Amino acid sequence: MFKRIISNIILPILLINFIHLHSQEQILDTSDHELITISEDTLVTRVVDCNSLFTLNNRKIDYLKNRPYIYAEPYYERAYNDKKEYGVFQLGKRKGTKPFLYIKLFKFNTCLKQDEVLEFILDNDYRYRINNIYKPNCDGIFIGEITHKDIKKLEQGYVKSLKVLTFDEDFEFHLTDEKSEKFRDELQCLRYQNFKYK
Fold first, then answer.
1. Which residue from 54, 60, 61, 164 puts its CA 20 to 30 A from 80's CA?
2. What residues form DSSP beta bridges with 39?
3. pLDDT at 132
4. Structure confidence at residue 126 (pLDDT)
5. In what helix (H) or strand (E) does residue 179 lie, and over which residues does it extend?
6. DSSP type of residue 112
7. What confidence score (pLDDT) does residue 2 get?
8. Rg of the chain's alpha carbons, rounded to an integer?
C-alpha cells in the first residue's frame, strides 16, 4: 500500500519533466514494475546554470574597451580539412553590448576581410553566415557580433561545424556532440540570461 502511494506521488512528478513530441512509443520499466510510455523523441527538461558557463572579468585593469565582460571557456580545435592547422574560438559579451564570437586561426599570414567570412553549419545542414566586424587583417583574427536574431536562427539545430573563409583557403572546424550541446547552451544563455557585471 505504502509503495503504491509513493509511486502515485513520485511518478507524476517525474513525468512532468517529459514533453511528448511524436507518437512513436517505447516502453520503460520502472523499479515498481509499472510501465511508462514515452515517445521516442521525448525531450528531457534540463537546467543549465548560465553563471557556471561564463566567467566575469570586472577588474578595471582588464576591461575590454573600457567595459567589464563575461566570457566562456575557449574551444581549441584542429581544422578538419587541414590537420596541421588549429584555431580557437570563444563566446563573450561586454556590458551593454551584443554578444560576440572571437576566433583566432594560428596559421601564419592568414588574411580575413571584413565581410561574411564565418559560416555555421548545423546538424540539419542549415548554413548561416555572420560578418567579421574586426578590421581586415592577416593575423587570423575574426570577431563577429551575434544578435538575438542570429541566435534564434542557430537554435534551429546544433552547430556541428564552423567554417572560416579566408583569402587563401577555408578552414572548417567540427564539433563533437558534447561541444555542440555546450555551444548551444552558451548561445541560449547569452540570449536569455541577464548577467550581473558587478
1. 54
2. 25
3. 94
4. 93
5. helix 177-192
6. B
7. 41
8. 22
Of 198, 179, 184, 177, give the one whose Cα is nearest residue 46.
184
pLDDT for 59: 79
CA distances from 12 to 7, 39, 128, 180 (A): 8, 16, 41, 32
Nearest to 171 by CA among 145, 142, 151, 143: 142
Residues of the chain scoring pLDDT < 50: 1-40, 42
Residues facing residue 19 across a β-bridge: 43
User: How far is Cα 46 from Cα 51, in angstroms, rounded to an integer?
Assistant: 15
Residue 60 confidence (pLDDT): 76
Residue 190 — φ and ψ, nearest 5°? -65, -30
d(CA 135, CA 114) in angstroms, rounded, equals 6
> For 3-37, b where at least 16 C-beta lie within 10 A, e where not — what string?
eeeeeeeeeeeeeeeeeeeeeeeeeeeeeeeeeee
Can you tell me the distance from the alpha carbon of 114 to that of 167, in angstroms, rounded to the nearest whole number?
Answer: 11
- CA-to-CA distance for 198 and 58, rounded, in angstroms? 7
